[in-house]
């Protein structure tokens, strides 16, 4: 088995493929490593792939399109250490019957964990009280704490991450409303299984204490959280975004947050890094995080280990736990 690792050398690759994981990989066959500190350019990528049965990729990898794959009759499996494969996949890849696996399923738990952390931090005003303490002050009635128990929670999107959020919220006895444009009528049993209520965007934005975004960024969902919805958010509610910044009309969000009606915990933004001139900076009712929602660094090696198990399963004609089908890939976040 010939394995191509496109991830450049450096701390990111080392976090996904530490020495013990590298040895596991090398036990499977001949491994060709990217010894540069940057991703392969398209033509070099095309040439390197010609001899590979398996390609292990990471963030920033060139796209697997017709230009790269047209004359390739050897590649059988792409193992992506990222979550969404939308940015690197193409219809042509699936047309050639090349299988795809990714860390998407393992990422879900970690991102869900961050959403819960942002909920609790916002409700309990942890950033505010920490800054008060650092400024030499003590307890204050100006910003009372609230809890997560028995709050009404609205989830926009009901994919893997949102399902993990529901599991983690179970001890808090929440009423959970869900809106997902991709859930088909014959899949509605999912709502019953997870004990959540099918809802609309308007109901979620007008009635929920906590609104958490978990849908993919596609042409249909870009800026779906618009002025009409943002103006519906109740006094004292919390908007959390660990999905993609472009789901929200950020210019409108800035104006609404300046009114200090509700709070937000934002992990993602329209432009990243967030510009220094952003009006989101300096607002007391906003937690800003630099796209750190997940996965945490300690989980990365577990992602690669799981992909290695699936590589072995693939070549032994066994089911792959982390396979991404064409249908699923088409609903994933991709560059717009």
Question: What report would you give on this structure?
Answer:
α12 links the parallel β10 and β11 (263-266). The strands form two sheets. A seven-stranded parallel sheet has the order 8-7-6-9-10-11-12, with helices on both faces. It is built from 14 helices and twelve strands. It has 336 residues and is α/β, with parallel strands linked by helices. 35% of the residues lie in helices and 14% in strands. α6 crosses α8. It is globular, with a radius of gyration of 22 Å. It folds into two domains: 2-105 and 296-329, NAD(P)-binding Rossmann-like Domain (Rossmann fold), CATH 3.40.50.720; 108-288, NAD(P)-binding Rossmann-like Domain (Rossmann fold, 3-Layer(aba) Sandwich).
Number of strands: 12
- Work out the helicity level: 25-40%
CATH class of the largest domain: Alpha Beta
What fraction of the residues are assigned to beta strands by DSSP? 5-15%
Distance between the termini: 35 Å
Question: What is the general shape?
Answer: globular
Radius of gyration: 22 Å
The neighbouring-strand order within the major sheet is 8-7-6-9-10-11-12
**Count of folded domains:** 2
Category from helices, strands and their pairing: alpha/beta
Mean pLDDT: 95
* Helix count from the secondary structure assignment: 14
Question: TL;DR?
Answer:
With 336 residues, this protein is α/β, with parallel strands linked by helices. It contains 14 helices and 12 strands.
What labels would you give this structure?
alpha/beta; 12 strands; 35% helix; five-stranded parallel β-sheet; 336 residues; seven-stranded parallel β-sheet; single chain; Rossmann fold; 14 helices; 2 domains
């Amino acid at each position: 088995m010939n394995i191509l690792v496109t991830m450049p050398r450096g701390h990111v690759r080392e976090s996904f493929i530490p020495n013990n994981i590298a040895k596991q990989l090398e036990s499977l066959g001949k491994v060709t490593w990217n010894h540069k500190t940057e991703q392969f350019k398209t033509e070099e990528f095309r040439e390197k792939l010609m001899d590979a049965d398996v390609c292990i990729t990471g963030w920033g990898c060139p796209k697997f399109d017709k230009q790269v794959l047209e004359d390739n009759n050897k590649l059988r499996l792409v193992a992506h250490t990222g979550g969404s494969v939308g940015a690197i996949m193409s219809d042509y890849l699936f047309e050639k019957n090349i299988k795809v696996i990714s860390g998407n399923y393992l990422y879900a738990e970690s991102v869900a964990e961050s959403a819960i952390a942002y909920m609790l931090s916002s409700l309990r005003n942890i950033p505010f009280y920490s800054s008060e303490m650092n400024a030499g002050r003590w307890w204050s009635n100006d910003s009372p704490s609230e809890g997560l128990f028995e709050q009404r929670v609205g989830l926009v999107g009901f994919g893997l991450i949102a399902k993990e959020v529901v599991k983690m919220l179970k001890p808090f006895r929440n009423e959970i409303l869900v809106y997902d444009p991709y859930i088909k009528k014959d899949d509605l049993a999912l709502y019953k299984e997870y004990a959540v209520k099918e809802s609309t965007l308007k109901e979620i934005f007008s009635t929920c204490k906590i609104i958490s975004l978990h849908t993919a960024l596609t042409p249909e969902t870009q800026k779906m959280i618009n002025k009409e919805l943002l103006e519906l958010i109740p006094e004292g509610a919390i908007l959390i975004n660990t999905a993609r910044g472009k789901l929200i009309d950020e210019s409108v969000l800035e104006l609404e947050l300046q009114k200090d009606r509700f709070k937000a915990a934002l992990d993602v933004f329209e432009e990243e890094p967030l510009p220094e001139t952003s009006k989101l900076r300096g607002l007391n009712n906003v937690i800003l995080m630099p796209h750190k929602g997940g996965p945490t660094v300690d989980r990365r090696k577990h992602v690669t280990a799981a992909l290695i198990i699936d590589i072995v399963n693939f070549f032994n004609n066994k089911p792959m736990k982390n396979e991404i089908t064409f249908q699923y890939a088409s609903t994933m976040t991709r560059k717009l």
